[in-house]
Write a structure and sequence with these properties.
- The structure is a single chain.
- It is built from five helices and four strands, in the order H-H-H-E-E-H-E-E-H.
- It has 157 residues and is α+β, with helices and mostly antiparallel strands.
- The chain has one domain.
- The strands form two sheets. The chain has a two-stranded antiparallel sheet.
- The protein is elongated and about 65 Å long.
């Protein structure tokens, strides 16, 4: 079964955080989403380097996608392998990462378990500091342009 998503909160922005909350939602998303996507690149590289290799398909199919079904007001970007967990041609990547039961027949009794490898979590843990600092730098770099755009659109000073 998929584990709980690994998340991190970006703090320490101070004035930038206050400025983001004052911006309209669409403009704030234009600042945050590309910054987080850029911050996920080292995480993707970490996943590719820690993924177990038999055919190389897991490493080739690591993707960075906007998360579906997120709560209102949240912005999420996720690293995934293939189409989704347990789907598509790389369905087995989730089985390797999260572990799985061994059964002799479909829906039969469980006769053993394969331990989770957890390569995606390990990759995130090793790249978390880089991802956090990249996200903060991206937000701070994009914020002045977003403030100017919001002022032009709103007719403010």
């Amino acid at each position: 079964m998929p584990s709980k998503p690994v998340t991190f909160r970006i703090e320490g922005l101070g004035a930038a955080q206050r400025a983001l909350s004052a911006l309209p939602g669409a403009v704030a998303r234009k600042v945050i989403r590309p910054s987080i996507r850029e911050a996920m690149r080292p995480v993707k590289a970490g996943i590719q380097s820690t993924a177990p290799v038999k055919s190389g398909a897991i490493r080739r199919h690591v993707k960075i996608r906007a998360a579906k079904r997120i709560r209102r007001g949240a912005i999420a970007i996720r690293a995934q392998i293939g189409k989704e967990d347990f789907q598509g041609d790389q369905y087995y990547a989730a089985m390797v990462n999260f572990g799985h039961a061994i059964r002799r027949a479909p829906r039969g009794p469980e006769v053993g378990r394969v331990a989770p490898v957890g390569f995606m979590e390990r990759a995130f843990q090793t790249t978390e500091a880089v991802a956090r600092s990249t996200a903060i730098a991206g937000i701070k770099a994009r914020l002045p342009d977003a403030i100017r755009e919001a002022r032009r659109a709103g007719g403010g000073k």
